[in-house]
Amino acid sequence: MPSAIVSACLLGVRCRYDGGTCADRALMDRLMREGCCVVPVCPEQLGGLPTPRAPAEITRGDGASVLEGEARVVNADGADVTQEHVRGAREVLALAKSLGCGSAWLKEKSPACGVTAIKRGNQTCPGMGVAAALLRSSGIEVFGVDPR
Q1: Rounded to 5, what percent of the chain is helix, strand, coil?
Q2: What is the pLDDT of residues 33-85, one digit of tens each?
Q3: For residues 1 and 70, what is the distance between their CA atoms, to the nearest angstrom?
Q4: Which of 86, 92, 104, 139 is most open to solvent, judged by the fewest CB atoms within 10 Å of its CB?
Q5: 118 — phi, psi (to 5°)?
Q6: Are 92 and 131 in contact (CB under 8 A)?
Q7: Rg for the chain (alpha carbons), in Å?
Q8: Every domain of the chain and the residues it spans
Q9: CB atoms within 10 A of CB 33
Q10: Pairing relation of β-strands 103-107 and 3-7?
């Protein structure tokens, strides 16, 4: 049975920065039809951040820039939460490797999980979140999900 990492908020877990969820029933149905063993994760929580928490964004570049030490993740209160995002990304990768997950389905526009887009200010910018960038660079296939 294939295993996949999935952003926990997409599965209905109340782990978003605002304590909410963004459950995607179509994604859940698809993964169940495919017989996938789903591993729910929230990189931000795994990195030690609470829920709820102040929203955060990558200061410039994207998650790859953060992993290279060229950018930071800062929350709306001005606190640097880069260390927590990097720690959470590493924890997700460790889970993926230990459970043999070859793919990840991640919430778009997140500083941790965005696959093709992240939020910066009031704009959506092209780029990957920290966990998405680490997973992809480690050979895990990542898919962005943007429930609306």
Answers
A1: 30, 25, 45
A2: 999 999 999 999 999 999 999 999 999 999 999 999 999 999 999 999 999 99
A3: 39
A4: 139
A5: -130, 160
A6: yes
A7: 14
A8: 3-145
A9: 8
A10: parallel
**What is the DSSP annotation of 37-60?**
EEEEE-HHHHTT--SS---EEESS
Angle at 93 between CA 64 and CA 61, to 5 degrees: 10
pTM for the full predicted model: 0.96
Cβ distance 147 to 23 under 8 Å?
A: yes
Q: Do 9 and 131 contact (CB within 8 A), yes or no?
A: no
Cβ-Cβ contacts under 8 Å for 148 (sequence gap 6 or more): none
Cα–Cα dist 45/32, whole Å:
25
pLDDT tens figures, 99-110: 999 999 999 999
Structure tokens at 94: 């460790």
Give the span between the Cα atoms of 2 and 5, in whole angstroms: 10
Amino acid at the residue 95: L
Residue 78: exposure state from Cβ atoms within 10 A (0-12, 13-18, ≥19): exposed
**Residues near 60 by Cβ (< 8 Å), separated by ≥ 6?**
70, 71
